[in-house]
Amino acid sequence: MAKPTIGILMPGDMGHGCGKAFVNHDFKVISCLNDRSARTKKLAKSAGIEDVETIHNVVKSADIILSILPPEKALEQSRIVNDVILELKKNITYVDCNAISPKTANKINETIASNFCNFIDAGIIGLNPIIEKGNTRLFVSGPNTNPVKILDGHGFIIKDLGKKIGKDFYEGKVTLPLIIIFQRADGVERNFLVNTFTPIESLKNSGTSINDSGCGLT
Fold first, then answer.
1. Of 135, 204, 120, which Cα lies nearest the Cα of 167?
2. What string of H, E and C letters represents the secondary structure of 41-74?
3. I want to staple 65 with a disulfide (CB 3.0 to 4.6 A). Which of 7, 24, 106, 212 is the partner?
4. 155, 171: one domain
């Protein structure tokens, strides 16, 4: 089976590292670099990301688009991409990987999900996959998360949190930092954290394995 083409909007510090990891696993990775900084263009080139110049061309050529950019721009970008999807009537998966709230995630879902577009809400935990040597985690949620799972073990470790949009914010973007603190705390501090922050217990009870050797989530 042919591997999907991955579009990354945009290839900054995190995005170019993701792109490089995918290229290293023989995925074709594209982006549009019009109006981007010289630094971003240099990062994209070093990662082996192909510049197709416009968002229109990214949507036309990609099977999966990963949105990785400053979170305050996430909703605006989804609207731009949605206009192109509807124009082209293109079947595509759009994955928002930004540190956005459940409210914003649902707004993006309402904006972009359609008969043509499968929306996945996601949260990246860790540094870019090149720095993390493949241990960067991508927590995903949405009605159909299967398309992005092809990246599991190819740059990301994919953790599926279910079908509810916005769930990654609670269990990925809020809970995991608390778990890491919990692992490094002594007995008294752990009791305080468990009694104060319910996400620790809810993640422990969700089937995610926690060990005491560092940041080991399995």
1. 120
2. HHHHHHHCCEECCCHHHHHHHCCEEEECCCHHHH
3. 7
4. no
- Distance (Å, whole) CA 189 – CA 204: 17
**What's the angle, vertex CA 19, arms to CA 153 and CA 83, rounded to 5?**
110
Whether residue 127 is found in the same domain as residue 74? yes
Q: What is the residue whose two structure tokens read 């109006």? A: 35
* pLDDT, tens digit, 9 for 90 and up, residues 58-114: 999 999 999 999 999 999 999 999 999 999 999 999 999 998 888 899 999 999 988
The one-letter amino acid code at 170 reads: Y
For tokens 């991409």, name the residue.
81
**How, if at all, do strands 6-9 and 29-31 pair?**
parallel
| Long-range interactions of 35-42: CB distance < 8 A, separation 24+ | 36/10, 40/10, 40/11, 40/12, 40/16
